[in-house]
Amino acid sequence: MHKIRAKGILNADNGMNVYRGCSHGCIYCDARSDCYQMDHAFEDIEVKENAPELLEVALRSKRRHCMIGTGAMCDPYLHIERELEITRKCLEIIAKYGFGVTVLTKSDLIMRDIELLEEINRTAKAVVQMTLTTADEELCRVLEPNVCTTSRRAEVLSDMKKRGIPTVVWLTPLLPFINDTEENMRSIIKMCAEAGVFGIVSFGMGMTLRGGDREYYYAQLDRHFPGLKQRYIQNFGNAYELASPNAARLWAVFDEECAKYGIESDRDRVFQYLREFPEPEQLSLF
């Protein structure tokens, strides 16, 4: 871990990342890609120690309330967040100024802040998003070794829903020849239905690989799935998008299962929901 004094915190879409790098160890992580030009080791987490004060300045200057997002590039609930509490401090500022928040994470550490998220949702809007990749607990421990497993994430989603906090699931990635099965798809969507999620986001029935990410992923395939790397090379070469051979059937199952449980599956509509800040109720004169 190393700390920096950042110059800014919110991007043009009102998203923020208080950390850079990750300790979750997911074998497929796109954030390892060379295109992000990280100048430090991926596991050496960069901490924007002044993120809360930058956020307060940014929110004070905004003319209209909106949704503030976190977690798109780096999980806001890394292991060091337990000690540093930078994400929590940012949530406190969001609550203080009446803004909404969307949080994307794989970690059950978010439960520490459930009352704060409940407060934000009461006065504005809070949406908790979690990534789910496999319903197989043992496989989850291989794919995402340093973070809570899928069943625990499903419990978190359920607990959020019980507090009235809406939830969204990112069902991604589907790794060819590993978790790209109908059984896995149906099991995850059933979990989502039982947890009462609003919507599920899927970016495709497959995964992406770029320089930096590819080398790490292939090393992990050699470690956990001997011989599978050669199958990838034969089927995909150096392609960026690696679609599952089962993609067409998986899309059909995805649409069918989401419709069956009444879960929003249109990606554009889910993102619209995440961006929408609730309009204040108008008081009637009569």
Written overview of the protein:
With 286 residues, the protein is of the alpha/beta class. It has a 6-stranded parallel sheet, sandwiched between helices. A 3-stranded mixed sheet has the order 1-4-3, with no helix packed on it. The longest helix is centred in the last third of the chain and has 15 residues, at 247-261. The protein has helices at 51-60, 81-84, 86-96, 114-123, 137-143, 150-162, 182-195, 213-224, 228-236, 247-261, 267-275; strands spanning 2-4, 15-16, 19-20, 46-48, 67-70, 100-105, 126-132, 167-171, 199-201, 206-208, 241-243. The model is unreliable at 282-286 (pLDDT under 50). β6 (100-105), α4 and β7 form a beta-alpha-beta unit. The protein has 11 helices and 11 strands.
Tell me the overall shape. Answer: globular
The pLDDT mean sits at 95
Number of strands: 11
What is the first-to-last residue Cα distance? 59 Å
Q: Considering DSSP H and I runs of 4 or more, what fraction of the residues is helical?
A: 25-40%
User: Over all CA atoms, what is the radius of gyration?
Assistant: 19 Å
- What composes the largest sheet? 6 strands, parallel
Order of strands, main sheet, comes to 2-5-6-7-8-9
Number of helices: 11
**Approximate strand percentage:** 5-15%
Q: How does the helix and strand content classify structurally? A: alpha/beta
Q: Give unreliable regions as ranges.
A: 282-286
Q: Please write the string of helix (H) and strand (E) elements.
A: EEEEHEHHEHEHHEHEEHHEHH
